Amino acid sequence: MSTPELHWFKSTYSDGNDPGDCVEVATTPTVVHIRDSKTPDTARLKVTPSAWAQFLTHAFR
């Protein structure tokens, strides 16, 4: 069974003074993958889509 390649994107809020300082996200139907754009090959965080939605609700208040 092969793993499909993830399609990473940055938040539109991530174009501050240093474009390298941001979080990148890749979504699948069952998992939201989160990584640091400066070190994309290091550890990644994986959460459920509902947990990600709850985080976004509180992050953008």
What does this structure look like?
The chain has 61 residues and is α+β, with helices and mostly antiparallel strands. It is built from one helix and four strands. It has one helix spanning 49-59, and strands at residues 9-10, 23-27, 32-36, 45-47. Strands 1-2-3-4 form a four-stranded antiparallel beta sheet.
Strand content: 15-25%
H/E series, N to C? EEEEH
Rg on CA atoms, Å: 12 Å
For the largest sheet, list the strands in their spatial order: 1-2-3-4
Distance between the termini: 41 Å
Net shape = globular
Structural class: alpha+beta
Strand tally, please?
4
Mean pLDDT: 85
Report helical residue fraction: 10-25%
Number of DSSP helices? 1
Low-confidence stretches: none
What's the story with the biggest beta sheet? 4 strands, antiparallel
Task: Please describe the topology of this protein.
Blueprint (H helix, E strand, L loop, with lengths): L8 E2 L12 E5 L4 E5 L8 E3 L1 H11 L2
Antiparallel strand pairs: 1-2, 2-3, 3-4
Task: Give structural attributes.
about 60 residues, alpha+beta, 1 helix
Summary?
It is built from one helix and four strands. It has one helix at residues 49-59, and strands spanning 9-10, 23-27, 32-36, 45-47.
